Amino acid sequence: MSQKATARIPASTTNLGPGFDVLGLALQLYSTVSLEISEKKTEVVVSGVDAEKIPSTTDHIAYHAVESVYKRSGQQLPNGLILNIANGIPAIRGLGGSGTAILGGLLTANVLCGNPFSRSELLNFATAIEGHPDNVAASLYGGLVISVQENEHIHTIQVPCDPDLNIVLAIPEFTLSTQKARDILPKNVEFADAIYNISRSSLLVASIASGKLDLLSTAMNDKLHQPYRSTLIPGYNDVVDAATSAGALSIALSGAGPTIAAYCLDNMEQVGKNMQEAFSNNNIRCETKILGPDLDGAKVWT
């Protein structure tokens, strides 16, 4: 068996408006996780973007993922492991960072255990740790992924995605925990709102699969989570208006936020500039990134 394994996992943007906890799109932004058996004591090393916000201890979620693979495989956890996380994804900003960490731990530990589990099984494990499948499924498989959970099994379909589609991210400097973003959601929804979201999410998948991206402006409308979560983000409506005026096809929260994603075929620089200025006008500093969809998903090597 291998003594060391490394995984590169793409970030994700999820929900895409109406596809709450169902739709995820992998992005060309990556974290790298390596796991090595060591004769010394176990060590967790975190470097890169927002490293100060991420625990460099065995409390790290990636290490819990490593432990779960050894436990499920019936193998004894080595006395010494070096888990190295080179983080490339802004933390707690709605870009799937926790999902990439979980997958990094699962994928590398699976290699060290002799690959007892398939990717489908690892996705089930990742969902059990993360609590929802949308971000981990997209990061694992790449592209636009539809995920449906049935009991403890995740059914997925990867939808072809136009490689010319660009995602402009406006990433505020403040963080927004997923728990806080979930707590603000209503416990019940109107029947009409449920139909509204079903229709838009169906149109969204069809528009991306067929290449009819001009429909995204309608398809990404949502009534289940964005009207509530947007109140946690100062200047949200201004940022949306600014991106639209610069020619974005559509705009949506990335995951639970606070990052806002604009979907474009052109004029990406101006869209990003407008979004940054709109946040600045609301006394929020942010960085912007222009990314394409990652179509390959997580990669592992020894």
What does this structure look like?
- It is a single chain.
- By secondary structure, this protein is α+β, with helices and mostly antiparallel strands.
- The chain folds into 2 domains: 4-159 and 294-301, 2-Layer Sandwich (Ribosomal Protein S5, domain 2), CATH 3.30.230; 166-291, GHMP kinase, C-terminal domain (Alpha-Beta Plaits, 2-Layer Sandwich), CATH 3.30.70.890.
- 35% of the residues lie in helices and 26% in strands.
- The protein contains 10 helices and 11 strands.
- It has helices spanning 61-73, 97-112, 119-130, 134-141, 178-183, 191-210, 216-219, 226-229, 236-245, 268-281; strands spanning 4-14, 23-37, 43-48, 81-87, 144-150, 153-159, 166-172, 250-253, 260-264, 286-291, 299-301.
- Strands 1, 2, 3, 4, 5, 6 and 11 form a 7-stranded mixed β-sheet that branches. Strands 8-9-7-10 form a 4-stranded antiparallel β-sheet.
- β8 and β9 (260-264) form a beta hairpin.
- α1 (61-73) runs parallel beside α2 (97-112) and α2 packs across α3.
- The longest helix is centred in the middle third of the chain and has 20 residues, at 191-210.
- The chain is globular.
- The mean pLDDT is 96.
